[in-house]
Amino acid sequence: MIHDTTIVFSRELRPVLRDPFSVIFTMVQPLFFLVLFSPLLPEETGLQWFVPGMIVMSCLFGAGSTGGNLLFEMQTGSHERMLVSPLRRPALIVGRALKEIVPTMVHSVLIIAITIPFGFRPHAGAVLGLLMLAIMCVGLGALSYSLALASKNKEWIFWAVQQTISFPLLLLAGMLLPIEGGPAWLQFLSKLNPLSYLVNAERELFNGEVLTANVGLGLLAAVGVAALGLWVGTRQMRQAVA
Amino acid sequence: MTDTMIRTSALTKRFTVKKETVEAVRGLDLRVTRGEMVALLGPNGAGKSTTLRMLTTLLPPTSGEAEVAGFDVVTRQREVRARIGYIGQGNGAGHSQRGRDELVSQGRAYGLSVADARTRAQELIDSLDLGAVADRVVSSLSGGQRRRLDIAMGLIHAPELLFLDEPSTGLDPQNRANLQEHVVRMHAEHGTTIVLTTHYLDEADALADRVIVIDHGKLIADDTPERLKADHAGDRITLTFDSEDELRRAEGHTLGIAAVHNGLTLTLRAAGGRHLVPKLMRGFDEAGVQVSAVEVARPTLDDVFLALTGRSLREENQA
Question: According to the model, what pLDDT value does residue B201 have?
């Protein structure tokens, strides 16, 4: 299983390694928010508050849309070719989901590097934050792939669902604006969103609070989403027919 | 080790499309032995690809059984997959990948070491004339180049049994001839058992030792192309006349062979057409009937399909 997963993982990663600039082009979205939105934030929030949220956002949009690649391979025939190979079916999704760690980490490090000259100061706890983010992006990646498998022959479903889910998740996790000031119903919805816990945890970790309840909840949310994603994805890949 | 590579019994696949049950494959009994080159021939929608998908473990059968390379396609999927090669209708190589990378990862997927996979990839790149494009991104290759890459991918582990689903669809005549040449070579040099689906009559005729004709999910004939033609369709003798009058008079002198009348031509179907023509001519001479042209055509697989189903495969494909 590890052998098979490694093969799938390295196959997925290879185009990225062959053309590293492609990773940078896919991170324009968080960059726009940094440049065009963060200056509008009130004084007391600032980059120390905003940047950790942007890192989670890049994971949400990056890993969340990665199923589109599988969808394309389902149309062209290379997914079918993998299904006929003796690679274990779960490896086909686990290897793909694990690959999401690489672009997510590259994006995060770039976002941090870009914002440091503008006054952002990450604490060493950020390393733990990135680790948690890696776990979350594996989960989101696996869910995105599952959605792609479920949208077989109906590509529009994938994009419709992905877009419809991504934006509420983004807004309710308080990535752009604090949720605390909002109405009770919105705060309640925010508590249902696993990304809210991750965003809170990242903010504390990047600002030097490591052993807190929020960090624990964030880790729990990341592990929970990863477990759910891999479970759903593995089940679907086992049943995949072509 | 048995010599049977494929054995199916009452293999059936039903789909439910818009609450209607479609029987794509109905109770198929097949047997393919080691080293054969078999073509599944039939019109679009006959169930050829569905059959192939079941044999390659891509689709579970609704009922019936199939054993491929000695293993059941439902309960022993991994064993089957490890032993077969499959070249589907689409492109096996990912469009954002480079050809050589895909060949190596394909080799790895079939258990080759990195070094062996590289060596094997290079061999196939050379033999399929992909040297100039192997290190380019797949999406930049032409249709013919991609198809050759697909074949290389299907052959990476030198499978004992290779399935090709409509291998030459969408290729220009030159690329199609090229591809057929590769298939023939592979079969001759390595004794690979090959099962291919096609709706090109000439392709089935040129490549296959045995042709299995499928229509509406059922096997309707199974034999060598020569025997199929001999058994199901005679030679076609076409007689052309200068006038309706001559033609009408000729109709009484066709040696009892049924003639189909179309414009100023009469078409007769009979075995041994070349030997019949002199006899026919003598008869016409004696009756004073003038024939302006005679043509004898060997039967094609289309004639076989026409004889078996009453429909022309050539027309079905154009529809």
Answer: 82
CATH number at residue B264: 3.30.70.790
- Subunit contact B101:A82, Cβ cutoff 8 A: no
Decide if B57 and A73 are in contact by the 8 Å CB cutoff: no
SS3 content of chain B, % helix, strand, coil (to 5): 40, 30, 30
How far B220 CA lies from chain A's nearest CA (Å)? 26
A&B contacts, CB < 8 Å: 80
Look up the domain containing A193 and give its range.
Answer: 2-239
| A230 interface with B at CB cutoff 8 Å | no
Question: What integer is the mean pLDDT of A70-95?
Answer: 93
Q: Is the pLDDT of residue B212 over 90?
A: yes
Cβ–Cβ gap B59/A7 under 8 Å: no
Q: A84–B56: do the CB atoms touch at under 8 Å?
A: yes
pLDDT in tens, B20-50: 888 899 999 999 999 999 999 888 888 899 9
- Distance, in Å, from the CA atom of B112 to the CA atom of B26, rounded to the nearest integer, reads 38
SS3 B193: strand
User: Does one domain contain both B55 and B130?
Assistant: yes
Asked whether the beta carbons of B137 and B97 are under 8 A apart, the reply is yes
Angle at B218 between CA B213 and CA B222, to 5 degrees: 35
A4 touching chain B per CB within 8 A: yes
To the nearest whole Å, the CA of B104 is away from the closest chain A CA by: 9
Tell me: do B117 and B210 sit in the same domain.
yes
Q: The domain that contains B168 carries what CATH number?
A: 3.40.50.300
In this predicted structure, what is the pLDDT of residue B100? 94
B92 and B222, same domain (yes or no)? yes
In chain B, residues with a C-beta closer than 8 Å to the C-beta of A76 are 90-91, 94-95
Alpha helical stretches, state H, chain A: 2-18, 21-25, 28-32, 46-64, 67-76, 78-84, 89-99, 101-115, 126-150, 155-172, 184-192, 194-206, 213-239
